[in-house]
Amino acid sequence: MRRRPPLTLAVPALFGVAFLLTPLLGIVADAPWSGLGERLTDPAVTEALRLSLLVSGWALVISLAFGVPLAWLLARTDFRGKTLVRSLVLLPMVLPPTVAGVALLQGLGRRGLLGGPLESLGVRLPFSTAGAVVAAVFVSMPFLVISLEGALSGLEPHYEEAAATMGAGPLTTLRLVTLPMVGPALAAGAALCWARALGEFGATITFAGNLPGATQTLPLKVYLLLQDDPAGATAVSLVLLAVAAAVLIALRGRWLAPGGASPG
């Protein structure tokens, strides 16, 4: 039932909304609208945009390849250490971005835990485009896993059981029965994962560096523009803000609702 909120809750809630809205309105108000097209078509900006789309696209593909099975495992099976695995999935979401970058260096860098084996295979992730993709996957895949796990947990298993009785294997059941039924949650998780990868900054600059044409994505370009061209930084920030807002408006809260359905 809908009712008027008590004043003691409505007032601080409105202050909270104003606090969140003011910085975003600041970007819109200070954007150089007259020269926006010229700034956004600057070769350095378009190169950063191209790289951002490349990195976030590959990050989404890799996250789907690993995140969908991981979400299914967490939602559909019980095993020893499940709580630990779920905690590991959530950890990148709460780690400081620079700490995530340091962790990647210590794990996958030249002197990291897997640095030697990777070097022997000719793979060098730090300060490369591949390293930027790895950083984006590390921080964005949890959004996909959490969204999909919640939907899978709320899905009745008798549909999958019926498919199994008709001879469908686990992969066939997952592809033809399970994933179509949680399609909205999968789409929502994928969109959040992609948006998070597109906006990744801290882990990328720590692990992959800020190399134009190789690892300098749009967020890193904003960081550089702030030093010499604040108006340009605001213009590029406006693009990222618009993309993020478009994703959230399109989802309309689906990542919070059971089974991926909109609560409204």
UniProtKB/TrEMBL annotation:
Query: What is an example of a GO molecular function annotated in this UniProt entry?
Result: molybdate ion transmembrane transporter activity
Q: Record's InterPro entries? A: MetI-like, MetI-like_sf, ModB_ABC, NifC_ABC_porter, Sulph_transpt2
Keyword Metal-binding included in the entry's annotation: no
> How does the entry describe its membrane topology?
Multi-pass membrane protein
Query: Pfam families, from UniProt?
Result: BPD_transp_1 (PF00528)
The answer to keyword Transmembrane helix applying to this record is yes
List residues traversing the bilayer: 53-75, 87-105, 125-146, 176-197, 231-251
List cellular component terms (GO). plasma membrane
As for subcellular location, the record says: Cell membrane; Membrane
Question: What PROSITE patterns does the record tag this protein with?
Answer: ABC_TM1 (PS50928)
In terms of SUPFAM superfamilies, this protein maps to: MetI-like
Q: What UniProt keywords apply to this chain's record, in alphabetical order?
A: Cell membrane, Membrane, Molybdenum, Sulfate transport, Transmembrane, Transmembrane helix, Transport
The ABC transmembrane type-1 domain extends over 49-249
**What family classification does the UniProt entry report for this protein?**
Belongs to the binding-protein-dependent transport system permease family. CysTW subfamily.
Query: Its function?
Result: Part of the binding-protein-dependent transport system for molybdenum; probably responsible for the translocation of the substrate across the membrane. Part of the ABC transporter complex CysAWTP (TC 3.A.1.6.1) involved in sulfate/thiosulfate import. Probably responsible for the translocation of the substrate across the membrane.
SUBUNIT field: The complex is composed of two ATP-binding proteins (CysA), two transmembrane proteins (CysT and CysW) and a solute-binding protein (CysP).
Q: What's the protein name? A: Molybdenum transport system permease
Q: What's the gene?
A: modB
